[in-house]
Every structure is written in structure tokens, then in C-alpha cells.
Amino acid sequence: ANPAPLDCAQGGDLRRAQEGATMPINKSEKPESCDNVKVVVRCRPLNEREKSMCYKQAVSVDEMRGTITVHKTDSSNEPPKTFTFDTVFGPESKQLDVYNLTARPIIDSVLEGYNGTIFAYGQTGTGKTFTME
User: Fold this and answer.
1) Whole-model pTM above 0.70?
2) pLDDT tens for each residue of 21-67
3) In the chain, what is the greatest distance between 2 CA atoms, to the nearest angstrom?
4) Which of 23, 40, 91, 112 is the least buried, fewest Cβ under 10 Å from its Cβ?
5) Is residue 113 within 8 Å of 30, Cβ to Cβ?
């Protein structure tokens, strides 16, 4: 039987709970080490070809609320759909902002000996490799 995981608010970690360790909790552990997955979305601006063909932006980004609203660009009366994420970046966002708010904390944790993963997913040609580099 697997022991119940320790509560992250108490500074525990799942590895220690799975191993059934009874050692005291290390007070120097970073509380954010329990934040396993964060979903961050970066919306790209229209490219020159899309602008020349008079395409409209289909999404609006509210960085303060962490929401992206998808609007139908045709003349349908379908209401827009809103999605909430941990962090969102609009088309005007800069590489440095994306790095500082998303990658830097993970890199800092890796340099301190913690495991870290950044998984980039999205449409082909939208800048994932560029952003990761």
C-alpha cells in the first residue's frame, strides 16, 4: 500500500511520501517545489501574410486575469469562449518577459538540484523552438 502523499503546504514532497520516509521535513525546502504543473500560453501576433489577407485576431488576452477569449471571426452569433491559465502572454509580449516569468524559476530550481521540465506544445511554425532557445 502506498502511503498518503504529504501536504505541500507542510513542505513535504511526494518522493519522500512514496518512500514512506519518516525523516523530519527540511524547512529550507522551497514551497514552490510542490507546484508540479503550470500551464502558460503565449499568443503570437498576426504575421505579414495574415495581415495582407486582412485576417482578424481571433483571440484576446487578459494578462492580469490569466484568460484568453476566443472569438468567432465569421459572422456567426456564437458567443466567445474564455479559457483560464496560470499565465498568459499576449501578442506584444517579449522573449525576456516569457523567460523571466516562466523559465527562470525552473532553471533556478534545476541549478539548486531539483528536477525541472519545460514542455513546449503548439502549432507548427509558431515559435516554440525560438522561444525555447
Assistant:
1) no
2) 444 444 345 545 456 789 999 998 898 999 999 998 899 999 999 99
3) 64
4) 23
5) no
**Domains along the chain with CATH numbers:** 40-132 (3.40.850.10)
Q: Which of 127, 130, 131 lies closest to 47, judged by CA? A: 127
Judged on CB neighbours under 10 Å (0-12, 13-18, 19+), 88 is: buried
Binding-site residues from annotation: 122-129
**Which positions ≥6 away from 109 have C-beta within 8 Å?**
30, 32, 33, 116
